[in-house]
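Q: What would this chain look like folded?
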Amino acid sequence: MNDFITPDKVSELTGYSKGVLSNMRMKKEGFPFYKFGRKVFYKESEILEAIEKSRVETTPKAS
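A: My prediction, written as structure tokens:
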């Protein structure tokens, strides 16, 4: 389970609170997640991929 992380770590990586992550899970929105019993985990690689996909390209401002 090296690649699995807790909602605490996802909150740290994304800036979303654990409550927001919980609401996203209830609505089946946001990041894919995994449940083992009552525990919730995310794959770190999937979270980082989602962050990378939200990248916005910019151009340097001419001076």
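Residues 22 and 28 are 10 Å apart (CA to CA).
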